[in-house]
Amino acid sequence: MDSVPGDLDLSQLAGKSGCLPQYLKNCAYDVHTRSWVPPHMIRHVPKTSQKALIKHKCFQVEQARSGASTCKRCGEKIAKLSLRIGYPAKDQRGEYGALVIWMHAACSRTCCDGLILETFQAGESSLKKKIIGYECLSEEEQTQLRESVLRAQDAVSMDAPPALATPRQLSPPSTSNTYCSAVAVPS
Ligand SMILES: [Zn+2]
């Protein structure tokens, strides 16, 4: 690690409890490298990949592919196949200077100045619009995810039948499938 630049804040990267790395706003997502791209780095993305950049997304959700990742909020392991929520943060080790910070869904509600919670409170369309990978989840997983994030806020909503929480909607066209597979394929 001799090449670590002097301005890298290692205390932040260590993920001290209560001191999460700062949320990087306005990032794009590159499906080819599966990395977040900060706004000033977009010009460094190869031309061919630039067209495929996913913009206007804020967060990321997926099933943990292994049990190896740790929640940066509580420091506990994230169980394999459980849903985890991530946000981009500045990190030199990332392809474009950003890396995703993963958390348990339930732990994420207080992160990013409450932006994650706000997104969930705003409902289904906001989740689809702002969270990469949300549309790739099954309806069951989507319900489970919403409950994990919103549960502590409003315990009563757990009793709501899923049909109410999940209005039927036509699936969007194939573009979302393209990025679903790109996002979901393990490297
Ligand atoms: Zn946690």
For the biggest β-sheet, the strand order reads: 5-4-3-6
Whole-angstrom Rg: 17 Å
CATH homologous superfamily label: Zinc finger, PARP-type
The total strand number stands at: 6
Question: Which structural category do the helix and sheet elements fall into?
Answer: alpha+beta
Key terms:
single chain, first zn-finger domain of poly(adp-ribose) polymerase-1, two-stranded antiparallel sheet, binds zinc ion, 7 helices, 187 residues
Q: How would you describe this structure to a colleague?
A:
The chain has 187 residues and is α+β, with helices and mostly antiparallel strands. The chain has one domain: 2-Layer Sandwich (first zn-finger domain of poly(adp-ribose) polymerase-1). Helix content is 26%, strand content 15%. The chain contains seven helices and six strands; from the N terminus they run H-E-E-H-E-E-E-H-H-E-H-H-H. The chain has helices at 10-13, 47-50, 115-121, 124-130, 139-150, 162-165, 175-184; strands at residues 28-30, 35-37, 59-63, 83-90, 98-104, 131-132. The structure holds zinc ion (ZN). Zinc ion binds next to strand 5.
SSE arrangement:
Blueprint: H1 10-13, E1 28-30, E2 35-37, H2 47-50, E3 59-63, E4 83-90, E5 98-104, H3 115-121, H4 124-130, E6 131-132, H5 139-150, H6 162-165, H7 175-184
Parallel strand pairs: 3-6
Antiparallel strand pairs: 1-2, 3-4, 4-5
The protein binds zinc ion.
Overview in brief:
This protein is α+β, with helices and mostly antiparallel strands and 187 residues long. It is 26% helix and 15% strand.
